[in-house]
Amino acid sequence: MQNRFGLKDFVLLVLLVVVAVSVWLGISAGDRNLEVLLRIEKRLGDLETSLFTGGDSAKTGDLAKEVAELRTAILQRPVNVIIQGGGTASAAPAEVVPAGSGQAPTSTPSSPSATTASRDESWARPGVAIEWQEPWRFSSDPREVPGFRVGGEFTEIFGAQPAKLTPYLSSDVYGRRVIDEVCDSLAAYDPATLAIRGRLASAWQQDPDGLWLRVRIRDDAVFSDGAPVTAEDVRWTLKDFVFNPQIEAERSRSTLDMIEDVTVIDEKTVEFVFNQALFTNLAYSLGIYVLPKHFYAQFEPSTINQSTGLLMGSGGFKMPALDPARQWAPGEDVVIVRNDRFWGPRTPLERLRYKTVTNDLASLVAYRNGEGDMLTPTSPQFNQTRAEPDWEKNNWSLEWVNMRSGYSFIAWQCGPRNGRLTPFHDRRVRRGMTMILDRERMIRDIFDGIGIVSTGPNNPESPTANPAVEPWPYDPEQARALFAEAGWEDRNGDGVLEDAEGKEFQFELTMATGGEIVERITSYVKGQCTRAGIRCNIRLVDWSIYQDLLKRRDFDAVMMAWSASSPESDPKQIWHSSSILDQGDNFIQWSNADADGLIDAIRRTLDVDERMMIWHRFHEVVHEDQPYTFIRVSPWLRFVKGDIGNVETYKVGLVPSEFFRGAGPVPKPGS
Amino acid sequence: MLSYIARRLAMMLPTLVGITLLVFLLIALSPGGIGASLRVSGGQMEASKAAQLEAYLEDRYGLDDPVLMQYARWLGRISPVKFGARDQVTPSGELVRPPKDVKPLFLGDSWFSDLALDDAAKARLAALPPPGPLLDEAQVLEEHKAATRAYAAARASYVAATRRLKDAVATYAEETGIAGAVDADGKPVEGVLARHDPVDAAPSWQPVQAAALQALESLEAAEAAGARLGRAFDARPFPEVGVPIIPGSLSLAAPDFGVAFSRGRPVLDLIATALPVTILLNVLAIPVIYLIAIPTGMLAAVRRGSWVDVGTGALFVALWSVPTVWAGVLAIGYLANKQYLGLFPVSGLHDSGADSMLYLPRVVDGTLEPGYLLDLLWHLALPVACLVYGGFAVLAKQTRAAMLDNLSADYVRTARAKGVPARAVILRHVFRNSLLPLITMFVSVFPAMLAGSVVIERIFSVPGMGSLIIEAINLRDRELILANTLMIACVNLLALLLADILYALADPRVSYD
């Protein structure tokens, strides 16, 4: 039985070769097409850049500038435009005669007050003060930093994949970070001062009673396709997108439900009407992303609901692909490119890339290997890596508390648990509990030395925090006195405190299961309690059961953390006694008449300074009463490559639109 | 044989139902229950708002129905045989269903059976926009669009009103102390309450009455809007899907796996993006395992007791006992880290610049440009290596054992005695007869291929099926878990059937008739 190479085998072989060759030819043809496409795309990009920014040619630059000035002048004054200076390419400002307002024409405005005088106020409601907004500028101008360069890509490593990037539908923190760069809002928190400053809004007027808000949109604000941002876009975004029950944006719908109506006053003026006067109205309504109606209105609600990356706005960056068939989908890197038509200060970086690496070790290695320029390390990674000899030369290790830093705490059950009061209904006991826990040591030993001791419910960087409040000291002696005052003493000499009836002081600390940190915390708390004569039983439960226990108020003490996203949030949900009912988040059933009064006052008070004073008093009341033992404010940790410039650690976090990529190492921030 | 196959296929249906039902009940009975992820909102939202949001989401995804009804509904959607009116499909490919029924008023049969709207409410209802005309195609489309939106709004406000009513009833029940009227979650129990007559004099009765009136009004508005939408739907704004068998009541249509509520995307889309990645990994890994393990196993059997046998045996078992988590971390820490070897990329499937890469490698100015294909293979090297190394031991040992069984058989001695060359004896006689157990092993590979490897995907940030499934389980995403279960169960059952058929083909002694 010999195998012979027959005709059949030959035909088979030939067929195989033909298939292989045609596959190869096909791929090569595809490659050729791609090459041509890439060339065209590159040229198109160059062209666009030189058209809208001037690129490297001074001539086109001046031209673009002149066109922009002309457009501004025309938009500001629809009549009587007189342009002096003829066709010279100098940057002579266009002289403008105000339209019949009876005001004297101002010659070359030099001070802000002079500008105010000539401002058009026809859009405003008479008799109500207008809050004029300076144009949005860099908080730290990258052009003044040595080594400044335009262009380049910046890659941030995310720890988890954003599920979608469609505004209002995305609900995770990573998605929001991307959307923040692409979509713009009427106003935003100033990165350095946390004051609300106009972005798309050039001015607004707030009802003294807080029931309406009239906003004037900047004349030069345009979306990334060049269409102007109008009042109709704002109205459409809220009324036909967020409030459209077919769009799955119910979370935003719930937060914005104080907006009763949005009306278009004229092309650039929009008015919000509220159904209740709350201090959060201003920040919430000015903080909405303004979406381009002409883009989003072309899609059916179901297309928007199922989209993953339909993202367009008026921010400093834009999504390269806007077609639903080519939109970004989870699994790919998120890439956003500079919006050359951006109306604000020009962002130096060409592209932002967000790459997802789900494993902690892998993300650090990816960062070291140069696959990313910014990384959020874990606390042990931060300490160990920073200690390496050459690390600080080429990297920046940033650690700072900002408005998005949350705080962790142990919450004491102030009300009854299953009908019986816990020892913690007495505030002396709660204060004593705080005093037997050395929070500085906890931060040092449990949290790898990262964090600061928290003093109360307000973020320390926020103006709502009362700087005068000092954390309770670690003082077991004083704690013992407080316990004794409350009736807990060691009456039979067994080392455990008892009350007058001989009942031992014991409680259950409930925690959600989760790794090493939880273990360290439980052993520390248990040890400190034993030392103070208190029996502490630890109960570890799964997160879903944990939430159920919170809802049913079935615990003595729990340890958890609140996150933060803005300098000021409504305290009612967590602290007001009315939130004890209806499974509200006052799960510790803390009821304090002073605090309730202050919370109601905070919610009512529209004047910022006055409100901050009340916030400070509220902070004090919470501190005195210690319904929580406040443990730690967790700072942001970042590693950034040394050639990224102008990385300022702001109170709002980081502002990637101010970063630039230097040719080599650039000076460190703050130096 | 054919009748056997048909019988096996028929048996699969109840098995599939059993598997999915079991998995469904497991999700439903786990702490938090179905859709637990939808209910998280602590601290950011007022409790009443959060409760209404929850009610709204539960209504949208049908989570407020009894567990078995949810399962039956899911079964109805994935079944290719459909009852009732046929679904329609929009030009962009989304299914449009007949409007869902509005739930009856809470305690509407007992407490509020004689509740009536006042004239002002009736006037408000009468002032609702009337249905539009349905004369031509454009009008039908327009009316359907308007009616859909109106119904969504009306239904949402009815759900919110019901929630407010239930809260008011719960407060009332607690105050008047009706035993068992409020369950552990603080929700009123309709069955218990219906047996008690309300005490009108109680101070918390007034809010109940008011909330009931509001709920009734919004119920009627929702019913009107539902009727309007039903009319617009019956006018067939879009083409119908499927093939009718008995028009109007029975039809055949493609299964619909629904939308994963944790991601807001169609389940099939999610699987379609994750599955190719996992299959790619496995298509690379499985041949490597087979090409190394089987020859090694054969060699070990032939040279039984030699250093080859002992050495490979020890090596493979040693590899098999290295945990993947550890191996993956070591691989990243040493092979991928530029401080050490830095030979491979750390994560993902493509380089940052892969979009503008040519497909094939080529040499430009004396340097090699790797191209898309090589870049992909380079990224896959470490995950595939981690997937592969543990698989050698089982397969090699199986091959070795099966070969040894046959090597000592009579027919082998006979073959050798009659002078067949040793090579032919091993390859043609022994190896062929040792294939049976390998066939069983081979089919078990397919289900594993679909399920993906959770550990490897997490370590190397590969967006495959393993990550998808584990996330679906964490978020208790009903649609996604069930679709995955169904898919894996189907492939598993088919693979088992395939194994039995292959058995019969490979071994003439096996017969199923």
Short description:
With 671 residues, chain A is of the alpha+beta class.
Report on the architecture of this protein.
The complex is a heterodimer of chains A (671) and B (513). Chain A is an alpha+beta fold and 671 residues long. Chain A contains 20 helices and 24 strands. Among the domains of chain A are: 7-111; 407-633, Dipeptide-binding Protein, Domain 3 (Dipeptide-binding Protein, domain 3, Roll), CATH 3.10.105.10. In chain A, strands 17-21-14-20-18-19 form a six-stranded mixed beta sheet. Chain A has a five-stranded antiparallel beta sheet with strand order 1-5-6-8-7, with helices on one face. In chain A, strand 7 and strand 8 form a beta hairpin. In chain A, helix 13 runs antiparallel to helix 15 (476-485). Chain A starts with 6 loop residues before the first helix and ends in a 10-residue tail after the last strand. The model of chain B has no long low-confidence stretch (mean pLDDT 85). The longest helix of chain B has 40 residues, at 137-176. Chain B has two domains: 81-254, no CATH class; 267-506, Orthogonal Bundle (MetI-like fold). In chain B, the strands form four sheets. In chain B, strands 1-5-4 form a three-stranded antiparallel beta sheet, with no helix packed on it. Chain B has a two-stranded antiparallel ribbon with strand order 2-3. In chain B, strands 6-7 form a two-stranded antiparallel ribbon. Chain B has 19 helices and nine strands. Chain B is elongated. By secondary structure, chain B is mainly α. In chain B, helix 8 crosses helix 11, helix 9 (307-320) runs antiparallel to helix 12 and helix 12 (392-407) crosses helix 14 (422-433). The chains are: A alpha+beta (671), B mainly alpha (513).
